[in-house]
Automatic annotation (TrEMBL):
Belongs to the mTERF family. GO terms for biological process: DNA-templated transcription termination. The keyword tRNA processing does not apply. This is Mitochondrial transcription termination factor. The keyword Metal-binding does not apply. It comes from Cinchona calisaya. PANTHER family: CGI-12 PROTEIN-RELATED (PTHR13068), TRANSCRIPTION TERMINATION FACTOR MTERF15, MITOCHONDRIAL-LIKE (PTHR13068:SF166). It holds the Pfam family mTERF. Keywords: Transcription, Transcription regulation, Transcription termination, Transit peptide.
Amino acid sequence: MLRILMRNPKRFKESVERVKRIGFNPQKTNFLEATYVMASTATETWKHKMEVYKRCGWSEEEVLAAFRRFPKCMSRSENKILPVTDLLVQKMGFDPSALMKRPQIFSFILKKRIIPRCSVYQALLSKGLVNKKLGMAQMLEVPEKVFPSEVCQLPQRGRC
């Protein structure tokens, strides 16, 4: 963050103002993260990423709401956004608006986390060990360290 401030104080100030206009509270920690993302993203790159999210079916307001929840979603590349969206929305039937309510999912590694967990979810669903109430998003968000024990205990806990 300090590097961005030192490199171009004017750009940093503009980023702070834009982040405030988007609705971030300067008293909250995510304000710093949002300012960093905004300051380190060129205007044209920001517009391009906004267009990528719009091509996936989201409005500008939905994208900004996702940015307010998880600022790093705007630091993800098109090569990250499109495959994750394609898998979750097109192939897995994930609700697009629900995905934008959990934008941190775009930070997960597709081949190491998202695809394997989607496979586990489908297997559990097909065996009747989990129903759609659990939600695939919850399975994606469970931390790596506890995922195996959480998934193995689902039937015993009655969370299925």
